[in-house]
């Protein structure tokens, strides 16, 4: 198909903070350890981790000691604050070089993730030279929708709709990007367009067609209640939970797979089950395991991973959960659900899937004295009860914190860490999915077998799709 011309009219800015703090996790097989605490060496994924500790004091470099080259840029006064940083090197550059059609990072990551969905209405936005703009078009068609979905890492395009400008959040009304269906050589056909917004549902997600009704302190889950729930098996034993987000991709926690991501043959994902173990359930082997490049086993940030299945799932009794959109928040006090096969008492095992309804807590409450005292970062969301009683526990790691918005279920968090299980002032911490969206879509895009092309010149952007179906 012909390329499409896109004009960028104004600018915006976005940056991602990086916070490094100490660690504790909730990982355990069903037949594994009898403690909620875990060792930090992670030599075996079934070994529990140690409780939260104060970070060690910095050790000064003694004279004559070699300095790793990776430290040299910061020692020479080079700062990457406010700039785009390549994850595989120390290179950083102005954000205006992002999504400009020129690969500045060795792996081209600065030209990935140039499309996103934002706000409550899934407003389509594109990035050109580090600037996010909202897409407007009177001639939106399925080819453009297909291309946008591909660049988000999805294997298909469902549908789109138009919204009036006044119906979306004010943050998305200022910076507008026009899409014209003219050939790039026909510059005279650049027409003023009306203010409407394509809406791109990433998948037929967030529904529970097989269920209609109402972990620690929770209830045994009914079939179909959490159709996006996955069980991650390592050497034929349940190790962690996960969430189905597409027919090929599962979201889980990085600490579930760290150190064991290279041998995918030892792993399998099971879906559509409520009891462990059980024969005859839908099981898929893994093609690839990807965890965040900045994740460290002794840190709490970037605790996010993706599992790519060797074959797509068939949604017969299972459905994906919707990802949240950029800028979408789950307010303090909102009641959400946790689920998994983790222990139902501190130190026990879980055989049936359990679930519990828990409120989202504010970072202020969870980082206060007597709770986690400043250990909360923008990568985390806290949920549970400060008085204890309901919580995620061993074996729940990587599983969903699911919140319902307008009858659509969205993945708010992935179970990450906490002190013990369901103790007073020890609510569970979850990786905040809305903060990890850039990484999630980037990995899905770069590991997709379907090609899309998006590049920009001085003032125009060309958007082209290569129609190679999976």
From TrEMBL:
Keywords: Disulfide bond, Glycoprotein, Hydrolase, Protease, Serine protease
Region (Disordered): 35-64
Record InterPro entries: LDL_receptor-like_sf, LDrepeatLR_classA_rpt, Peptidase_S1_PA, Peptidase_S1_PA_chymotrypsin, Peptidase_S1A, SRCR, SRCR-like_dom_sf, Trypsin_dom
Species the sequence originates in: Oncorhynchus mykiss (Rainbow trout)
Family annotation (CDD domains): LDLa, Tryp_SPc
Positions of disulphide bridges: 80-92, 99-114
GO CC, one annotated term: membrane
SUPFAM superfamilies linked to this entry: LDL receptor-like module (SSF57424), SRCR-like (SSF56487), Trypsin-like serine proteases (SSF50494)
Protein name: Transmembrane serine protease 3b
Record field: transmembrane: none
GO molecular function term, any single one: serine-type endopeptidase activity
Domain Peptidase S1: start-end pairs: 215-445
GO biological process terms held by the UniProt record: proteolysis
Protease among keywords: yes
Record domain SRCR: where: 103-156
Domain of life: Eukaryota
